[in-house]
């Protein structure tokens, strides 16, 4: 029986209410078009910057904005990017080859993806235009002096789902045919870091945020209301939006208790608070606007994390809460968590992963492994692990 007490879509009341939100492409474009025209007045030019996070459906978003804004000129920041083969070479050192897991946090800045000459040409072209000039795409804010800033955001979990469906590409390249696991790794170690640096540097300047998480159902909210809502959230309890995913060992408990899709093979994970990838739902009257929960971490890190954590880690939320479900499934996977030093040297991470478990439910035959059996040959165990890692044979955990 599905639980009625677990809220899968928790919301945060938005500051400013429904008047600060426009829903649908027509309403969103009308608001932006009227705002831009009001700024034009006797000016020669008004530049509208549509800065984009990675993972958007650009065909929809760009197409609808072109049609709906009816700007005098519409340019693309992508024209200032380096060629795709140069970007591939740029990011390769941080990806660890074709290994689906290993990589290194890239220290790259957004400017690293831009060609200096192309960027200069785009900036010069903008300076020669009259009327309302719209510049669209990731890196837009590096290519113009905007009069109006719209940030088209994208929650990371939705971006991952799009990668699995081969709907989007990584930053600056066309690679949507790449396996979703490799796209995700590239996003995790490179794209998200690059986009977040620009996001953090500009969030306080946004005039609007554009939510296109649900295709053909965009929501446009004012930057003023966004920041006021995040200010409120940093001072009160709140929940992020949970998401669920199958696992090789996954069970049926989450599916049954939380009313999840019964056709899924299992749900091994229920990610209830992983601010790196979860979302916040902001309630503007009956309209729900979805934004990355990292926006709150970036906007109010001291208030959210406390001075000690912020001083040690910066704007990083170091705790994750999730359900692990093995009921009617298999044993949890064995994990080796690196030391802090290893994590920093090998992955660029500032901290390692320690775990605590709360057992919420268990079957009659449930068991927990606590350490090794008496008399285990540790060298033989290492050899068995290495064989399993190479794929020669499965690791016999019972042994």
State the major sheet.
7 strands, mixed
H/E element sequence: EEHEHEHHEEHHEEHEHEEEHHHEHH
Chain-averaged pLDDT: 94
How large is the count of helical segments? 13
- Strand line-up across the major sheet: 2-8-7-6-3-5-4
Indicate the radius of gyration in whole angstroms: 23 Å
Number of strands: 13
Outline: globular
Judged by helices, strands and strand pairing, the structural class is alpha/beta
Ends distance: 37 Å
- Kindly state the percentage of residues in helix: 25-40%
Low-confidence runs (pLDDT<50, min 5 residues)?
none
Strand content: 15-25%
Features:
alpha/beta, 7-stranded mixed beta sheet, 34% helix, 399 residues, 13 helices, 3-stranded mixed beta sheet, 16% strand
Give structural notes.
By secondary structure, the protein is α/β, with parallel strands linked by helices. It has 13 helices and 13 strands. It has a seven-stranded mixed sheet. A hairpin with a 2-residue loop joins β11 (279-284) and β12 (287-292). α5 packs antiparallel against α6 (180-202). It is globular, with a radius of gyration of 23 Å.
Brief overview:
This protein has 399 residues and is of the alpha/beta class. Helices cover 34% and strands 16% of the residues. The protein has helices at 25-40, 58-69, 84-91, 116-127, 156-164, 180-202, 223-233, 253-258, 294-299, 301-305, 307-313, 340-347, 378-390; strands at residues 11-13, 21-23, 45-52, 73-76, 131-136, 148-153, 208-211, 219-222, 243-245, 269-273, 279-284, 287-292, 321-324.
């Amino acid at each position: 029986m599905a639980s009625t007490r677990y809220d899968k879509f928790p919301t945060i009341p938005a500051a400013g209410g429904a008047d600060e939100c426009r829903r649908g492409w027509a309403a969103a474009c009308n608001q932006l078009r009227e705002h831009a025209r009001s700024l034009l007045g006797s000016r020669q030019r008004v530049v509208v910057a549509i800065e984009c996070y990675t993972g958007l459906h650009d065909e929809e978003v760009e197409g609808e904005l072109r049609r709906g804004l009816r700007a005098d000129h519409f340019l693309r920041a992508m024209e200032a990017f380096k060629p795709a083969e140069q970007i591939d070479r740029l990011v390769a050192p941080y990806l660890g080859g074709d290994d689906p897991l290993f990589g290194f946090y890239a220290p790259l800045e957004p400017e690293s993806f831009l060609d200096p000459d192309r960027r200069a040409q785009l900036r010069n072209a903008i300076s020669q235009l009259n009327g309302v000039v719209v510049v669209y795409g990731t890196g837009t804010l590096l290519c113009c002096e905007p009069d109006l800033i719209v940030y088209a955001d994208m929650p990371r979990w939705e971006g991952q789902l799009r990668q699995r469906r081969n709907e989007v590409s990584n930053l600056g390249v066309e690679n949507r045919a790449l396996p979703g696991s490799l796209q995700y790794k590239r996003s995790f170690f490179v794209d998200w870091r690059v986009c977040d640096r620009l996001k953090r540097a500009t969030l306080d300047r946004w005039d609007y945020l554009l939510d296109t998480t649900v295709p053909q159902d965009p929501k446009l909210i004012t930057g003023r209301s966004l920041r006021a809502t995040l200010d409120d959230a940093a001072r009160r309890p709140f929940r992020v939006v949970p998401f669920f995913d199958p696992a090789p060992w996954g069970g049926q408990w989450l599916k049954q208790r939380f009313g999840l899709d019964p056709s899924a093979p299992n749900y091994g994970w229920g990610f209830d608070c992983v601010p790196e990838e979860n979302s916040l739902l902001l309630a503007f009257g009956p309209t729900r606007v979805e934004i990355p929960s990292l926006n709150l971490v970036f906007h109010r890190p001291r208030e959210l994390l406390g001075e000690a954590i912020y001083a040690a880690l910066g704007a990083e939320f170091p705790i994750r809460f999730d359900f692990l479900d093995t009921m009617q499934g298999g044993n949890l996977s064995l994990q080796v968590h690196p030391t802090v030093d290893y994590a920093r040297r090998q992955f660029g991470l500032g901290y390692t992963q320690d775990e605590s478990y709360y057992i919420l439910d268990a079957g009659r035959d449930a068991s927990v492994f606590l350490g090794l059996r008496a008399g285990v040959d540790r060298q033989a165990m290492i050899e068995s692990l290495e064989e399993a890692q190479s794929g020669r044979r499965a690791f016999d955990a019972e042994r």
